[in-house]
What we know:
alpha/beta
Amino acid sequence: MYSLGRYRPVEVDDLIRLGRDCDGGYVISKRQIEKTDILLSFGISTDWSFEADFEKRKRIKIYAYDYSVSKECKRPEIRDNLGCMIGSFFVLRRSRVKEYWKKISGIRQELNLLYGYFQKKYDRHFIPKYLGDSDSGEYISFDKIFKGLPGAGKLSVFIKMDIEGDEYKALPHLAPYFDKINGLAIEFHGLNSPEKFEDITELLLNSYYVAHIHANNSCGHIINSTLPMLLEITFMHKNMLPGNVRPSTAKYPVKGLDFPNTKTLDDIVLDFS
């Protein structure tokens, strides 16, 4: 079992929420927004509400990475769902065909909106790749990303990441670029086997404070514990908070900033003791 005590946030007085109130939104500092020139987003699917909210507050370059919803992917996640729905027509009662057609139309619309939002002329770039630990096939590494990233100055980059467990393969290779990254908002998966989680967060905590933390309630708790299976953590570079840094006394989830990822389930209260 991991200990939440290591991840109690420090006091940050300018936190705001970007993105949806449910899954897909993250809490970051206004100072991070002001400092950011480039946003790297890993794991988009059909929700770019975080990216859109960020861009409303500052003109930035956005590079979004996700192979699963790309035109290059032979069986992207969203099209698999579409195929299942179409196949279901053959076993559906007539009364439900209309309901499923609405869902299919919604998925098509989401794909069109995705490709419409990410356009190079607006400095919104969609790259059909998964983030990985090397450059092969549908994967791209941090080394290749940063070598080809124009204008990445000191602490000018912010990273958002929700890549379903691949964070543990990719993040160990990020350390050479910490001086360029003012912060990260990461959803960590598979915390019932926390060794990789503890290793990577130990690396991050050498250069970053925890600015905010929230439990994704969709997978509940680890069996026989009060610890969540999924954690969303916002990291803030230590150079962004000079001087005396105090532990936060807030209760988590924080009212007005945090919302349940799954609306039908209660949010998870975090205990740092």
